[in-house]
Amino acid sequence: MSNISKWVIVLLLATVPLWVTNQYQLHILIMMGIFTIGAMSLNLLLGYTGQLSLGHVAFFGIGAYTTSLVSLGFDLKLTEDYTFVFAPKPAWFGVICAIVVAGLCGWFVGKLSFRVRGAYFVIVTISFAEVIRLVALNWVDLTEGPMALNNIPSLAFTIPWADSAALSRRIANYYLVLAVAVISSIIIQRLVQSRIGRTMVALRENEALAKSVGVDVTRSLVLAAVVSAAIAGAAGALYAHYVRIVDPDVFLFIYTVTMVIMVIAGGKGTLAGPLVGGVIFGILPELMRGHMLPEVQWIAYGAIMILIVFFLPEGIVPAVQRWWAGFQRSRQSKMNPHSRANKASPREAAQ
């Protein structure tokens, strides 16, 4: 896809709030966009380095809690005589802190876990996510535990043409999510198309060969983990300022599963894969909800996922790309039916 086509798509997405005025539909689009950003960050690890992280939701939750605490302020009792008081800061500063803290946690997990591979890496990431969830649940003095952090300030700004304050806030959040998605996509594209990105792909394809030619495996993987975690933290920050309440349920394993499904169904290792997967599996549950019972919805959801994996094992985007390339070749051959006949073989030329 050319750069012009990409920007045309972005401009079309920017017009969505002009013709989608239903608040619930805008809410679905915003939530879909937030989890699509999370899927894009996971794709950097799963798709380009080949490392499956089933604890990726930890960085999403860390971003959500960090920006919430910075925006609300908190009192932390360190000793019997001293309590650390952190005054509330602007919401935009909380988002920056969320990105930085999530990135640092990604560096820590990367340095710790990338020394192992395969199932051991998966276990480390799941364990990290569970530890963070338990900290959020039990450190009541800081996180309020199951009572949740609420009244988180919104990042939204006023939209002049919106009919109500609620609609204005949703439109503003839609544009914020779209902006972060575009910036994240550009960062990931620049990274994977650079020398470092080629190193990541080399590690995914053949790690032993990459090591033999002098590739620093740990350094490349840790960098991917830092960028991936930072983007996931940004998605978590957007989530916190949109829903304006954060509790330990933000670390639920189902959120990681949702991101993995978006990446694999769309096509891991492709820039467009998480976007396509995010759109399909963000809207599909809502479409089924109006026509199916809750029990049937999950059966249909699982059946669709199985069919995609069975018939399109590489994902939707690679399958479409392969079909389009075949269509182009077929079209060219029909336009030039005598091109092959006019090309003489070396033996015929010699005679």
From TrEMBL:
Highest taxon of the lineage: Bacteria
CDD domains named in the record: TM_PBP1_LivM_like
Major site of localization recorded for this protein: membrane
Gene Ontology CC entries for this record: plasma membrane
Subcellular location: Cell membrane
GO molecular function: branched-chain amino acid transmembrane transporter activity
Keyword Membrane on entry: yes
UniProt keyword list: Cell membrane, Membrane, Transmembrane, Transmembrane helix
KW Transport (keyword) present: no
Bilayer topology term: Multi-pass membrane protein
Transmembrane stretches, start-end: 28-46, 53-71, 91-110, 171-192, 221-240, 252-284, 296-313
InterPro entries (alphabetical): ABC_transp_permease, LivM-like
Matching PANTHER family: HIGH-AFFINITY BRANCHED-CHAIN AMINO ACID TRANSPORT SYSTEM PERMEASE, HIGH-AFFINITY BRANCHED-CHAIN AMINO ACID TRANSPORT SYSTEM PERMEASE PROTEIN LIVM
Protein name in UniProt: Branched-chain amino acid ABC transporter permease
UniProt source species: Borborobacter arsenicus
